[in-house]
Design brief:
It comes from Microbispora bryophytorum. The chain has ten helices and two strands, in the order H-H-E-E-H-H-H-H-H-H-H-H. By secondary structure, it is mainly α. A two-stranded antiparallel sheet has the order 1-2. A hairpin with a 2-residue loop joins strand 1 and strand 2. Helix 2 crosses helix 5.
């Protein structure tokens, strides 16, 4: 076997650790909490898709926005329009959640999160894993992670729509607590979206002279600050969207029914 062939074969093997772990801390807590948090989101999202209590004037649940069919309540339709007409009768969440869901699924941070917590690949640094080989994201299905940038463009649209929903609810008189919950959620989602690694690269990743592009440099600086907190915004927005969505549904169901709800 030539040296090149040997090196190629070695790259396909995971780092071999003779013992279960070289760590003495509670390394399993991080993947365990990550697993629980992501599983909670998946369970809630599946329930919310099929729940019909997603609108109560002036609130629309984030998991069901935008609503684009005539089957949607009139006040829930984006800009009052129904471009999907009568043919689409399924819950709006089925149509919409694939866009922000695909963005999060292919996100660089979330890849690390669910690779470690769901696939144990690896569960933590310096911890042995059950996988003997490593092919990276070079073949199906993981090669599809490369479409993350395109999900980023779609996620911007969804983030702006959620911001529009929040502002629309806020200018409604009287403005209720739900308006502020939706606004905070929209802000966290935009911070997570614009803090994306792809956004940082798109903004000025290919520039060699910042001085020749002052506006793009300022945008890159702002995105870089968000990017430094990308993990925090990823979790904050994950829970904020669930809280905001559940709040709207509870108001629509009449479970929450106090003044200025």
């Amino acid at each position: 076997m030539t040296q090149t062939t040997a090196e190629s074969a070695a790259r396909k093997q995971r780092a071999q650790i003779r013992v279960r772990t070289l760590r003495t801390d509670r390394w399993w807590l991080a993947p365990a909490f990550t697993f629980a948090g992501l599983l909670l989101f998946l369970i809630y999202g599946f329930w919310a898709i099929f729940d019909k209590s997603y609108f109560v004037d002036p609130y629309i649940a984030p998991f069901s926005s935008p609503c684009l069919a005539t089957s949607c309540p009139e006040g829930a339709r984006l800009f009052g329009l129904a471009p999907f007409g009568d043919w689409y009768t399924l819950p709006p969440g089925i149509l919409i959640l694939g866009l922000p869901g695909g963005f999060r699924l292919t996100c660089y941070y979330y890849r690390k999160a669910y690779y470690r917590s769901f696939w144990l690949s690896p569960p933590a640094c310096a911890v042995a894993e059950p996988h003997g080989k490593y092919t990276g994201e070079t073949r199906l299905p993981l090669i599809l992670q490369n479409i993350h940038r395109y999900f980023f463009y779609l996620a911007i649209v969804i983030g702006l729509i959620l911001t529009y929903d929040a502002v629309l609810a806020l200018v409604h008189k009287p403005a209720g607590l739900g308006s502020w919950i939706l606004l905070v959620n929209a802000a966290l989602i935009l911070c997570y979206t614009f803090g994306c690694h792809s956004c940082r690269h798109i903004t000025a990743g290919r520039l060699t002279h910042f001085s020749r592009h002052p506006l793009r440099y300022k945008a890159w600086t702002l995105v870089s600050k968000l990017n430094a907190r990308h993990q925090k915004f990823a979790w904050a927005s994950l829970f904020s969207v669930m809280i905001a969505d559940l709040y709207v549904r509870l108001v629509a169901m009449g479970v929450i029914n106090f003044p200025f709800a």
